[in-house]
Amino acid sequence: SPNMLYCTYMNYIAEIISANGAEVLNDIANWLPVILPSIVTAVVFIASGLFVWRLIRRQRKLKYSITLVSLKDNKLPWLIADAVIGIVILICIYRLIAPPDTLLDTMLKYYNLGSGSARAVVACAALIAISAEAVTASLTASHTAVVDRGVYTLTGFMEWYRVYDYYVDPDKKYVMLSTSKNGPLTLKGTTPPLRFRTEDLDKLKFILNKNKNKFISRSEQ
Q1: What distance separates the 2 farthest-apart alpha carbons in the chain?
Q2: Contact 159, 150 (CB under 8 A)
Q3: Which pairs with CB-CB distance under 8 Å and at least 24 residues apart come from 70-73?
């Protein structure tokens, strides 16, 4: 009967889909150790690229702004990060060009990966390290300063209406700015210590004291 033929046909289609689905799932499971690192690599690459692009754009704006007081942040952590990530990149490159029977390839084969798949994972690790190196290198090369419109910090720009308070240490020659009403010595909304020259102390205090009140006037609007 037509109904029996229809049911038989649909059962046949269901068996084909079921068999193909199992095969597809098996292929996905085999490639999952490569697919997941590739997705993570793409996300990290895009995010780091956007961060570096925004940082370069801010540095260009700083270059063409009127600098009132030059500031310096601590570059040592970024220099250490540059060196460590550089070593990781070299290790990844070595693993990519090394013979197949290396320790890394042997370990990756425990995850049922072939030599090509193992090298693809290492390549993803290398790209992630290169992205991180681009971020830390750009932070190492960036500059901070007080300009007429606000303060360029390491990772952003604080307009005057965002500066609620500040703390200046005349002995250690550094300043900390805060966007929090709890004050500049709390972690929330506080910049890292930014160093200045001794001859800029009075000028810096005058500029900060003059402009910090813009936070209060802005909040009252």
Answers
A1: 100
A2: yes
A3: 70/143, 70/145, 70/196, 70/197, 70/200, 71/144, 71/145, 71/146, 71/151, 71/175, 71/194, 71/195, 71/196, 72/144, 72/194, 72/195, 72/196, 73/144, 73/153, 73/154, 73/192, 73/193, 73/194, 73/195
Both tokens assigned to 8: 């038989």
The string of DSSP letters for 188-207 reads TTBPPPEE--GGGHHHHHHH
Q: Do the Cβ atoms of 123 and 96 come closer than 8 Å? A: yes
Residue by residue, pLDDT tens for the chain (221 residues) are: 445 554 554 555 455 445 555 554 455 555 666 778 888 999 999 999 999 999 999 999 998 888 899 999 889 999 999 999 999 999 888 878 876 665 565 656 666 666 677 778 888 899 999 999 999 999 999 999 999 888 998 888 888 888 877 888 888 898 988 876 665 555 566 788 899 998 999 998 888 888 866 655 444 44
Q: Are 143 and 59 in contact (CB under 8 A)?
A: yes
Q: C-alpha dihedral over 133, 134, 137, 139, to 10 degrees? A: -120
